[in-house]
Amino acid sequence: MFDFLDSGQYDVLGAFWVTVQLTLYSAVGSLIWGLMLAGMRVSPVPLMRAFGTSYVNIVRNTPLTLLVLGCSLGLDQTLGISLAGGTSKEIGFRLAILGLIAYTGTFVCEALRSGINTVPVGQAEAARALGLSFFQVLTLIVLPQAFRAVIAPLANVLIALTKNTTVAATIGVAEAALLMKEMLENESDALFAVFAGFAFGFVLLTLPTGLLLGWVAKRVAVKR
Amino acid sequence: MSGVSVTKDAQDAAPAADDLVVLSNVNKHFGALHVLQDIDLSIARGEVVVVIGPSGSGKSTLCRTINRLETIDSGTITVDGKELPSEGRELARLRADVGMVFQSFNLFAHKTVLQNVMLGQLKVRKTDSAAALEKAKSLLDRVGVGSQADKYPAQLSGGQQQRVAIARALAMDPKVMLFDEPTSALDPEMINEVLEVMQQLAREGMTMVVVTHEMGFARSAANRVVFMADGKIVEEAAPEQFFSNPRSDRAKDFLSKILHH
Ligand SMILES: Nc1ncnc2c1ncn2[C@@H]1O[C@H](COP(=O)(O)OP(=O)(O)OP(=O)(O)O)[C@@H](O)[C@H]1O
Ligand SMILES: [Mg+2]
Question: Is residue A6 assigned to a domain?
């Protein structure tokens, strides 16, 4: 049933490796961008707050496919912004990551912000009263405490991100979903096996995220 | 504490050269509510001022405007001759010089007692860590919680937490200390241990603004009592005079209520 795997015709591992890379780069980027967005949304500067709020509300409510397509069509093909050039494959890969970061960052931001809201205001007030700067209050006092409340929602965001990388197929990035589509067309007699195989592949990728963050959550919970 | 004026009359004159905190014509609103109305108050170096008044009269708000945890709508506040900066680095620097102790302690929950007292020294004063450690330990000993240094705040009693909070504020070498009902959240048997620390501070010459209803403290440690009602300073007097012979009806009414507890 899985004999088409042996033919060497399909690079399944290679395709999943692209998925893993998309996920990792986007995850790191979204965590950073989400942290910055959350910083803006709680900042004392009205302009930053306004930017953070409108960005999150617009981008979060835009379909990811549109964002990734927008990066590809809008940035690359119309404006010629290819982020350091390279082959069309490399450009697609980088633009897909850009789209994923732009989108996932909003969810990271909101997860962080809900965590920030669980920290009593007195904590930040005491820190400000000591003379700590806004940035110090955020990074030394508020975020470390918000982090505990944020791990579970953040795991959800990262799992969703792993699956969302399949959208990169729409701009031709050779990740797992694109290969699956190709295999479904060619191996119509093994539809079920192909589906099951790819679904299993994604579960393999996402399970560790949940388990790892669950473990982290337990570790930080006992400290209090 | 010579040279400290405790009468209302001296207040009306131009602020003395030795005034550390001066509020003049301060107004603040919360929406339609006029919480602080034309507040004029000068606190001399080394003076201990107790602020007293009914709930909702604006005592906490007054206290919090002095380090700009609350902004004001009009008027000026100066600390050690400098007007409060509005934002940023300058404001942070000023706050470091104004210690604050809250009703609910607000110790950093994710840091140990020792780390709580060291944080401001390390991150704001940029003290080197050996010196910060030594100072934190000696302050914790001074407030009587030296043996709890490695515990987290949640593992301490309320009285102990509040004493740590005082040590945390003192670690910055503040010019003035603000206390907003520091004993109101404490069980009765813990109130005295905190008041004793505050009394000692007062004796050592710390400038203090204390919102409290502890009359024992006011009588023994305060130079002046400021009575607030409905966002205004209604009466200012020496503690003895205020408690035994209040001038305003509002103060008489208020005292009759709290004295019958
Ligand atoms: N952040 C806020 N927003 C709106 N109203 C507020 C805010 N903080 C305080 N107030 C209102 O301002 C008034 C004065 O409050 P404040 O806390 O200064 O009183 P207080 O004298 O400290 O009272 P208490 O003895 O109960 O602590 C109250 O009516 C209160 O409801
Ligand atoms: Mg109050």
Answer: no
